[in-house]
Amino acid sequence: MTVRCARERAVQTIAYEIGGWLVATPAYAIAFGRPPGESLVLMIALTVAMLVWSPIHNTVFDHAEWRFCRRVASSRPHRVRICHALSHEATSVVVTLPVIRAIGGHGFWAALAADVGLTLIYAAYAYLFHLAYDRIRPIRHHAELPVIAPAPLSTLHDAIASPLAASGAAAG
Fold this sequence. Notes:
Low-confidence stretches: 144-153
Shape: elongated
Number of strands: 0
Helix content: over 70%
Order of helices and strands: HHHHH
């Protein structure tokens, strides 16, 4: 296996989002002077949106990394981990900005400021989370089987002819 299976991806995504609540909810409440309960409602709504987006982003990123680098996520070097975290957060704004506006009750600029702030928090969190997750639950894949060259036709002919010749000699 070169990428995480659907079950493992679900475990990864749920763990990521729960950890995100613990980090982002108090930060948002403090920054925007909102009660913790209201902040948690917004974080839960953002989590639902990200539960849809995260596995899509991570799977596309993992497949691209495998296709271009022949590397699995748990072998990802730090510079690519940074790109992964930044691309995840940069692309998530398409999903999260409308949620922040609707549930947070912010105008466009305040919602964008909240989104940028949460993005910065989550970018650092994503890097650390995925680093830890890949160390704790590395991708296990079967060692590639050795490539065995096909036998020359003469060897195949000898392998077939020898038993036939021996059985013919024994019969005669």
